[in-house]
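thread: overnight batch results

M.L. [08:02]
morning all. the overnight job finished for the chain we discussed friday. pasting input first so we're all looking at the same thing
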Amino acid sequence: MTQSKGRGAAYILAIIAITCWGFSFIWEDYLIKNNVEIFTFIFERMILAAVIMWIAGGILGKIQKIQKGDMKWMFLLGFGEPFIYFLGENFGIKYTSGVMAAIIIATIPLFCTVVDRILYKFKLSFPKVMGCLLSLIGIALFMMEKAGNGSSQLKGILLLLFFAVGGALVYGYVTNKMISRYNPMTIVTYQFSFGALLFLPFFLIFGLRGLTPEFFSLPVQSKILALAVLCSCVCFGLWAFCTGKLGVTRVNIFSALIPLVSAGAAYFLYPGQETFTPLKFVGIALTILGVIIVQVVKDKKALK
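M.L. [08:03]
and the structure it wrote out:
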């Protein structure tokens, strides 16, 4: 019963995290479309997240000592996400859009299923494969009317696929490895500390020029603060907790819901940017159906 309640809470927390992350694509899209230097706002986001986590962790006494040999894994965690992931995500948004980026990120569950098969020897049951495929078909339908032409669009899609999705896979693998030894607050604190360290050279080379009066305006700073507090500190902490309760593949299937949140946020916050058509509604239905199917299918390890 306790385990069942723990999983139930994890599902709720995963939905909360996905909702915030859905909004994050819209906030990042706003910053990029308003010519805010990418390395400037990413570095501020990293510093704010790291400082907040160290202060909160110190007050609550939740920062654990890293065991010998595990620091390299914490570094790899920060390298995968936020470093590699945020490079792909933000530059992908620059060449596409926030909603398009969210849609491509939603392909993560399919790649995680493949990784599970390779690394953990999980059997790919037919219902689970069908659930992932249904989600991807739904996402494809959803993005059909957003697709554009040109090398710029292709560049953005490739950046998202190779960097953002690749970084998320590394993050998921290392989190799954570390969550049994460290609490979510410790993991997230070191994750963003290393992320800030990795982004520092890029900020010094490219980001200093972005420290303009417009950068310190309320519309810009409010969105960076929301990204740092909600989408970094809170969401990654929730995600680490959910990964420990549900596993990498089960929790990552929720990524399929991100474009739905992003499109809805864009529709209501920026009228005219997003419209809902019958084709998109079909895509939404298939995506959610795929999520439900994957959640109810149990993973089984292959016999050795």
